C-alpha cells in the first residue's frame, strides 16, 4: 500500500471531481434530511393560522331566564375546542335583554388589550380592571385607552333558547397611525 | 481499594475521557488578578439557570399541560405532592433570580464596557440570551395556568396582533387558534420546556466558548483605552505575567456568591412559598385581576400611562428597538475608554433606566389608572353624618361608581382627580356639567342618573373642603 499522501497533481482529472461530488452529495443529502424532518413539523405548527375561524351558534339559556334589564354574564363553549381543553374551552359574553323581543350582547374582551371587562349595574358602565378602559351600555368607549367600542356578538332566539354566535377572541388590530 | 489501585482506575478513565487534557486547562486558565467581586454575576446567572433546569424537570414529572388538568396538576404539586410546594417555589424565585442576575450582569458588563474589542460577540450572544430568558419568564407565567395566566395570553396576543401586516397571523400562531384554550397551553409548554431551553443551552455554550477564546476582561484602566490594533498582544502579555488560575483563585468567589443565591432562593421558597394560584383558568370568568410578574410590571404601567396615539408604537417598538440597540451596541462603539469615569453618558443611561424601572414598577403595583372595584362606602367620619341627604349623597357616590375612580378623604380610587376639597374648587353648575357630560377620561352620567340622585351627589360634593360654618349650600336644592 502506498503511504504517500495522494498527490492532487497526479490525477487532477479524477481526484478533485470525486471529492467535489462527495462534498456536494453530503451537503445535499443533509439538506434533504433536514427538510424531511422539519417541513411537516413547521406545517403542523403553523396550521392553526390558516384554519378559517368557525362561527357556531351556542345556546346560553332559556328565553324566560332572561329578564329585561342590565347585562348578565353568559358562558358557552368556544367555537373550536380541543379535546383536552376542559374549562379553558369556555367563552363568555355580556348579554342583555333590552326589551321583550330584543337582545344585545358584547364580547367580554376589552378592545384595548383584551382584559375582561366588568358590567357595573348602577352607573351602567363596563369597566376594565387592567388599564382603565370604560364603556357605556351600548358598548361605545366612555373613557380610557380603548380605541374601539366593545365587539358586538349576534344573538338570536330559536325554539325558546337564546343563542349567541361564537366569535374568535376579538383582536383590536389597531393600525399604526 | 488501595490508594494505588484508585489512582490506576482514575488514570484508566482519564486516559479514555481526556479530563486532564481537555477540562483541566479550561478550569485553570489564567484570569486577570484584579477580576474580583465584580465578576460574580455571570456565574450566578448560570447557577440560577441550573436551579431552573433541575426544579423544572422535577415539576414536569407531575405537570399536565392541557386544559383543566393543568390547574389540577398545579394544585397537586402545590398542596399534596411531598416537597412540591418547595420545588414550585424554588422554580418561581429561581426565575426572578435569573432575570435579576442576568440584568445585573449586563449592567456590570456595560458599565465596564467589557463589550468592546475583541468581546463584541460575547455581548451579542448575551443579549440574545437575555431576551430568551425574558421569553422563558413570560411563557412560565402562562404555564401557571390560572385566571391570571389566561388573561396574560390574551393581552400578549393582542399586543402581537398590532404588528403591521403579520399581526393577526402572529397572534393566532401564539394562541394556536382563534381563542385562548387547550391548544394555547400545549403550545406555550413546548416553547418553555423544549425550544427556549435549547436556545439558552446553546447560547450559554457559545457565550462560554467566547469567554475562553478572548479571556476574562481586566478591570478598566483610565490610562489604557482599547486599541484593537494592540489590545490582544498587550492582554496576552499581561495575563501571562500577572494572571492567576481561574480554579481556585477566582472561582471561589463565584461559588460563594452562587451559594448565597441558592440559599436566598431556598429561603424565599420555604418562608414565602410559591405564588398563590388564582381561580381556575376560565376564559369566561371576568373576576380576574390580570397583573404580570414583577419584572414586566414597568411595561404594564407604560401601556397605561401613554397617550393612545403612541401606544402601538411603544408596544411594538420597545422590545424591537431595545433588542436592536443592545445587540448592535458593541458595533457602534468597540474601542476607546472603558472606565466609567470617562463614559458619563453610559452611567447616566443606567441611572435613568433604573429610576424609570423603579418608578414604573411602583406605579404598576398601585395601578392608579384602574377603577378600584373593591372600594368601600365612605365612613361617617369622612361624610360628617350618617343620616340625612348628605349621607345619601355619599352613599350614591359609592353606588354609582364615583368612588371607583375618585378619592375622598383617603377613600376611593385614583383614576380621576381627588374630590376631598372639590366644594372649594368648583361651583354647583360646574359639578353638574361634569357629571352629566363627562370629560377627559370621565364617562357621562346623564343617562344613568336621575335628577334626584344627581342633586344628592352634588349637595354632598359641595360640602367637601368647606368648613362647617360655611357648610350651607349657597344655592340649595329646589
TrEMBL record, chain A:
The chain crosses the membrane at residues 27-50. This is Cytochrome b6-f complex iron-sulfur subunit. Gene3D superfamilies: Rieske [2Fe-2S] iron-sulphur domain. One of its GO terms (molecular function) is metal ion binding. Its cofactor is [2Fe-2S] cluster. It comes from Gimesia aquarii. One of its GO terms (cellular component) is membrane. InterPro entries: Rieske_2Fe-2S, Rieske_2Fe-2S_sf, Rieske_Fe-S_prot, Rieske_Fe-S_prot_C. It holds the Pfam family Rieske. The gene is petC_2. The keyword Transcription regulation does not apply. Residues 58-164 form the Rieske domain. Keywords: 2Fe-2S, Disulfide bond, Iron, Iron-sulfur, Membrane, Metal-binding, Transmembrane, Transmembrane helix.
UniProtKB/TrEMBL annotation, chain B:
The keyword Membrane applies. Residues 388-465 form the Cytochrome c domain. One of its GO terms (molecular function) is metal ion binding. Residues 236-368 form the Cytochrome b/b6 C-terminal region profile domain. Residues 9-220 form the Cytochrome b/b6 N-terminal region profile domain. The chain crosses the membrane at residues 37-64, 92-111, 123-143, 189-210, 255-277, 313-333, 345-365. It comes from the Bacteria. InterPro entries: Cyt_b/b6_C, Cyt_b/b6_C_sf, Cyt_b/b6_N, Cyt_c-like_dom, Cyt_c-like_dom_sf, Cytb/b6-like_sf, Di-haem_cyt_TM. GO terms for cellular component: membrane. It holds the Pfam family Cytochrom_B_C. Keywords: Electron transport, Heme, Iron, Membrane, Metal-binding, Transmembrane, Transmembrane helix, Transport. It is a multi-pass membrane protein. GO terms for biological process: respiratory electron transport chain. It is found in: Membrane. This is Menaquinol-cytochrome c reductase cytochrome b subunit. It comes from Gimesia aquarii. The gene is qcrB.
Amino acid at each position: 500500500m502506498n503511504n504517500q499522501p495522494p498527490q492532487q497533481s497526479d490525477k487532477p482529472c479524477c481526484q478533485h471531481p470525486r471529492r467535489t461530488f462527495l462534498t456536494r452529495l453530503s451537503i445535499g443529502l443533509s439538506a434533504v434530511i433536514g427538510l424531511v424532518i422539519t417541513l411537516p413539523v413547521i406545517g403542523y405548527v403553523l396550521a392553526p393560522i390558516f384554519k378559517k375561524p368557525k362561527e357556531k351558534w351556542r345556546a346560553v339559556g332559556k328565553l324566560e331566564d332572561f329578564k329585561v334589564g342590565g347585562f348578565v354574564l353568559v358562558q358557552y363553549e368556544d367555537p373550536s375546542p380541543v379535546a383536552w381543553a376542559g374549562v379553558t374551552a369556555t367563552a363568555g359574553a355580556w348579554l342583555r335583554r333590552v326589551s321583550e323581543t330584543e337582545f344585545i350582547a358584547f364580547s367580554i374582551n376589552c378592545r384595548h388589550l383584551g382584559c375582561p371587562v366588568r358590567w357595573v349595574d348602577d352607573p351602567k358602565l363596563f369597566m376594565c380592571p387592567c388599564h382603565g378602559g370604560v364603556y357605556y351600555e351600548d358598548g361605545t368607549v366612555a373613557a380610557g385607552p380603548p380605541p374601539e367600542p366593545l365587539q358586538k356578538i349576534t344573538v338570536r332566539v330559536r325554539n325558546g333558547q337564546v343563542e349567541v354566535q361564537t366569535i374568535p377572541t376579538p383582536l383590536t388590530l389597531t393600525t399604526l397611525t | 481499594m488501595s490508594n494505588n489501585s484508585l489512582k490506576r482506575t482514575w488514570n484508566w478513565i482519564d486516559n479514555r475521557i481526556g479530563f486532564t487534557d481537555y477540562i483541566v486547562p479550561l478550569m485553570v486558565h489564567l484570569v486577570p488578578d484584579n477580576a474580583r467581586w465584580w465578576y460574580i454575576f455571570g456565574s450566578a446567572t448560570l447557577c440560577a439557570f441550573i436551579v431552573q433546569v433541575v426544579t423544572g424537570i422535577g415539576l414536569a414529572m407531575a405537570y399536565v399541560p392541557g386544559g383543566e388538568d393543568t390547574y389540577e396538576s398545579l394544585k397537586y404539586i402545590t398542596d399534596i405532592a411531598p416537597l412540591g410546594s418547595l420545588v414550585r417555589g424554588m422554580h418561581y424565585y429561581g426565575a426572578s433570580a435569573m432575570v435579576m442576575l442576568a440584568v445585573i450582569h449586563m449592567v456590570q458588563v456595560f458599565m465596564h464596557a467589557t463589550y468592546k474589542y475583541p468581546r463584541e460577540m460575547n455581548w451579542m450572544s448575551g443579549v440574545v440570551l437575555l431576551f430568551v430568558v425574558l421569553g422563558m419568564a413570560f411563557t412560565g407565567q402562562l404555564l401557571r395556568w390560572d385566571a391570571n395566566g389566561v388573561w396574560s395570553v390574551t393581552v400578549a396576543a393582542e399586543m402581537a396582533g398590532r404588528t403591521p401586516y403579520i399581526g393577526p397571523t402572529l397572534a393566532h400562531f401564539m394562541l394556536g387558534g382563534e381563542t385562548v384554550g387547550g391548544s394555547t397551553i400545549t403550545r406555550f409548554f413546548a416553547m418553555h420546556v423544549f425550544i427556549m431551553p435549547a436556545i439558552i443551552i446553546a447560547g450559554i455554550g457559545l457565550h462560554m466558548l467566547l469567554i475562553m477564546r478572548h479571556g476574562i476582561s481586566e478591570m478598566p484602566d483610565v490610562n489604557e483605552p482599547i486599541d484593537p490594533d494592540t489590545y490582544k498582544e498587550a492582554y496576552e502579555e499581561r495575563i501571562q505575567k500577572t494572571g492567576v488560575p481561574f480554579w481556585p483563585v477566582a472561582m471561589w468567589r463565584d461559588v460563594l456568591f452562587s451559594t448565597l443565591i441558592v440559599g436566598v432562593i431556598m429561603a424565599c421558597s420555604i418562608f414565602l412559598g410559591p405564588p398563590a394560584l388564582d381561580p381556575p383558568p376560565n376564559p369566561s370568568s371576568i373576576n380576574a385581576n390580570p397583573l404580570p410578574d414583577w419584572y414586566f410590571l414597568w411595561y404594564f404601567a407604560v401601556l397605561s400611562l401613554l397617550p393612545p396615539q403612541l401606544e402601538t408604537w411603544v408596544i411594538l417598538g420597545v422590545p424591537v428597538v431595545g433588542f436592536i440597540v443592545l445587540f448592535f451596541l458593541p458595533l457602534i462603539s468597540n474601542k476607546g475608554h472603558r472606565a466609567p469615569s470617562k463614559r458619563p453618558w453610559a452611567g447616566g443611561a443606567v441611572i435613568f433606566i433604573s429610576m424609570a424601572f423603579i418608578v414604573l414598577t411602583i406605579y404598576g403595583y398601585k395601578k392608579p389608572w384602574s377603577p378600584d372595584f373593591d372600594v368601600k362606602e365612605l365612613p361617617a367620619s369622612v361624610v360628617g353624618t350618617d343620616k340625612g341627604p348628605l349621607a345619601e349623597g355619599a352613599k350614591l357616590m359609592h353606588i354609582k361608581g364615583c368612588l371607583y375612580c375618585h378619592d375622598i378623604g383617603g377613600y376611593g380610587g385614583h383614576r380621576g382627580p381627588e374630590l376631598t376639597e372639590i366644594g372649594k374648587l368648583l361651583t354647583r353648575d360646574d359639578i353638574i356639567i361634569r357629571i352629566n357630560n363627562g370629560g377627559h377620561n370621565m364617562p357621562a352620567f346623564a343617562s344613568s342618573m336621575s335628577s334626584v340622585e344627581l342633586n344628592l351627589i352634588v349637595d354632598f360634593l359641595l360640602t367637601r373642603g368647606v368648613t362647617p360654618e360655611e357648610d350651607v349650600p349657597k344655592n340649595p336644592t329646589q
